[in-house]
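Session log. Operator J.P. requested a structure for one protein chain; no other inputs attached. Running the standard single-chain path with token output.
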Amino acid sequence: MFKENLYQPFEVLLREHDRFPLKDHQHSFFEAVHIADGNGVFQICRPMSDICEFKYSAGSLFLIPPNTTHCFKVSKRSKFLFVRFTDRYIDEHLGGGAKHALYLSYATPMITLKSAELKVADALFGLMESELSGGRDFSEAMLQNSADIVLASIARILGRSPDIHIHIQNADETAREMHMLQYIQTHIHQPDNLKVEVLVKRFGLSKSYIGRYFKRRFQESLRQYITRNRMRRVEYLVVNSLMSVKEIAYDMGFADSCHLVKNFKKYSGMSPLQYRSKFNLHKKQRLSP
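Structure written below.
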């Protein structure tokens, strides 16, 4: 499967397609996609490996997190505004709280803006389109400032629902599943909040049942899912940031760097620094003529 990398912290692209040029693919970075015109279907493969489809039209907004298999199926010629950015860009422009909120788009990639937020976002996307027409002074600054406001709004929206304490004895099971995945993703760097004792209290399931419940719906154990997604986040930080192993261990809630190295070796077959070196070598080879 094709996987695209971003060799700068931030970029904005405007494209029109009768047929989207890429089939199922992944990115190593975040991508916010605003549909300026047209309609079709956005398709992703969720972490539990089922395919989900979202119909899009003019004004639709999606946030695609790193390492997510996805594609667009165009029904009517569509104009796409792509805002692409790395973890490092989020840290420098929005902060760690926004970063953890934005990762929630693993569970909810379609972003629904409220009326006031929608008016602001539409104006900012319009401004970005205008700046991309070229030839203006300070265009890069205008693009970044506009994107930062939109991304902060998305982080705020994604950060709301996991903080709502929901007891769901008789609630729709799909809603329970979505909120469970949202909660795990937003607290993936806080292992104390992902203990079974905490999860059963939050989601109204018994301690003896929650493991069977999760395995039946997501085809892997709760512990496997948490570990895999935690390691995916660590992997992203290893190859897309300048953070030391000690800093990554602290950011992701490991007891110490030794514990992180041990777990990462089990996940990838090599240490974080070996993995980073291998990735950097591969990147140089791809960029060399």
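Operator note: The beta strands are 2-4, 10-17, 25-27, 30-45, 51-56, 61-64, 70-85.
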